[in-house]
């Protein structure tokens, strides 16, 4: 079931065939020191959240209003379009029609998390796991909430449980790697980031995370390769540019480091590691 959230769906009929479709989650944002919050976010697929597709899904709902699957997939589309209230309503209707629809609980939990309603989100993940204790997606989602709340032992237990279930979701390894990193276990973190990369080589976050751990082990060359790769995959993330600044600073190239930190601060003026980096390297700006 968990792989189906990556399926590209072109029509309402294709959506409805997949009961286990869940809201895809992007990787987690990294701070230069790996201490900042890292939130799941709905991966926007314009085709799935488009008004045309929503119209098709609404027609499917109207044609069979007692089918919970149609509400679940329309809820996913609403979530991807950013209409959280309608997404919540559809997932709730799906659950009313089928109280054992654990995927709908997990989908609703992810949207609740997007709305910073973490208590309600955890309750939904708990309910999904009561129904299906082997649902790796729910362990990963709940683990992320625990990790952001600094409940690291509980987060680690959830990520470990997903991994023990042989999850194919790279977020379990990536997020466990972040916890290892926070604990100073950088070699274990690198192993987990590498596993996440092997599962999805196009996700930038594990490259950035691995770069930080390489840098902590004074492996500056590999750190540079990884952070450059992260920026190539997504050049709009302030934390990636700040991490590049750290790598350049470690190399002694403070002028280039300043430019990276400054770019990070331009992307996110409130990003503290970028502001700190600018302050440290400002005197080298003209070098």
Number of helices: 15
CATH architecture of the largest domain: Alpha Horseshoe
Assign the CATH class of the largest domain: Mainly Alpha
Parts with pLDDT < 50 across at least 5 consecutive residues = 1-47
Q: Report the CATH topology name of the largest domain.
A: Serine Threonine Protein Phosphatase 5, Tetratricopeptide repeat
CATH superfamily of the largest domain: Tetratricopeptide repeat domain
Class by helix and strand content?
A: mainly alpha
Beta-strand share of residues: under 5%
Based on DSSP secondary structure assignment, what is the total number of beta strands? 0
For the report, how would you describe the main beta sheet?
A: none
Could you tell me the radius of gyration in angstroms? 20 Å
Task: Give average pLDDT, whole number.
Answer: 85
What does it look like?
InterPro entries: TPR-like_helical_dom_sf, TPR_2, TPR_rpt, Ycf3. Keywords: Repeat, Signal, TPR repeat, Transferase. Pfam families: TPR_11, TPR_16, TPR_2. The chain has 3 domains: 50-123, Tetratricopeptide repeat domain (Serine Threonine Protein Phosphatase 5, Tetratricopeptide repeat); 133-234, Tetratricopeptide repeat domain (Serine Threonine Protein Phosphatase 5, Tetratricopeptide repeat), CATH 1.25.40.10; 239-286, no CATH class. It has 15 helices and no strands. The chain has 287 residues and is mainly alpha-helical. α3 (68-81) runs parallel beside α5 (102-114) and α11 (204-216) runs parallel beside α13 (238-250). Helix content is 66%, strand content 0%. The N and C termini lie far apart (55 Å).
